[in-house]
């Protein structure tokens, strides 16, 4: 799983292709009768905004960490494991990355409430105007997607706060002191 995560983190184009294909499959499942090519093309075109947002965020994270995209991927892997960098330059880069991500997450509760309201509204509209298949599909999608976003948001927020606390520790943990064992988050 780690190799797949690193591969996807390094290659945004692969994430885009897999996301478009997964979204297209879901659309074809919920709205049968449309041609596969038209669904894939329409999904790819409507995903352009999301791609721009991801590219801008990646560039801002790279700038905050002061390195290349591969450096951000390596820092992200350390953040996932809970490894505290020992080299001063790596600590500075991690501090920048953590500060950037915490800044980006500052409105996560309001965003999750808005996301839940949006998905619930669409689900209710499907209940009243769509078929049973569409209503059930959107209900399942709403529960799974919103629940997953809430869970992952809480996990990442906890990881970022823990890393922020570890990096701002007044003891200035350096290479001579052992790194505490990583907590499973």
Description:
This protein has 185 residues and is mainly alpha-helical. The protein has two domains: 1-46, no CATH class; 64-185. The protein has eight helices and no strands. It has helices at 2-10, 12-30, 36-46, 48-65, 69-81, 88-104, 108-129, 132-167. Helix 1 (2-10) packs across helix 2 (12-30) and helix 6 packs antiparallel against helix 8 (132-167). The chain is elongated.
Keywords:
185 residues, mainly alpha, 8 helices, 0% strand, transmembrane, transmembrane helix
Give the structure's gist in a few sentences:
Helices cover 78% and strands 0% of the residues. The protein has helices at 2-10, 12-30, 36-46, 48-65, 69-81, 88-104, 108-129, 132-167.
Main sheet record: none
Number of domains: 2
What is the end-to-end distance?
16 Å
Number of strands: 0
Strand composition percent? under 5%
Structural class: mainly alpha
Shape: elongated
Q: Please tally the helical runs, counting DSSP H or I stretches of 4 or more residues.
A: 8
Order of helices and strands: HHHHHHHH
Provide mean pLDDT, rounded: 86
Lay out the secondary structure.
Elements: H1 2-10, H2 12-30, H3 36-46, H4 48-65, H5 69-81, H6 88-104, H7 108-129, H8 132-167
């Amino acid at each position: 799983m780690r190799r797949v995560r690193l591969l996807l983190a390094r290659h945004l184009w692969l994430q885009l292709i897999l996301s478009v294909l997964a979204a297209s499959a879901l659309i074809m499942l919920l709205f049968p009768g449309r041609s596969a090519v038209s669904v894939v093309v329409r999904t790819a075109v409507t995903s352009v905004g999301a791609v721009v947002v991801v590219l801008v965020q990646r560039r801002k994270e790279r700038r905050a960490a002061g390195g290349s995209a591969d450096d951000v991927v390596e820092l992200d892997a350390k953040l996932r494991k809970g490894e505290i960098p020992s080299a001063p330059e790596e600590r500075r880069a991690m501090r920048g990355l953590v500060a950037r991500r915490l800044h980006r997450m500052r409105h996560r509760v309001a965003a999750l409430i808005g996301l839940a309201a949006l998905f619930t509204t669409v689900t209710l509209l499907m209940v009243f105007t769509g078929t049973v298949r569409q209503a059930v599909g959107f209900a399942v999608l709403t529960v799974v997607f919103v629940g997953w976003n809430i869970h992952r948001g809480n996990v990442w927020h906890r990881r970022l706060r823990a890393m922020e606390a570890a990096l701002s520790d007044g003891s200035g943990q350096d290479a001579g002191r052992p790194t505490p064992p990583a907590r499973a988050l």
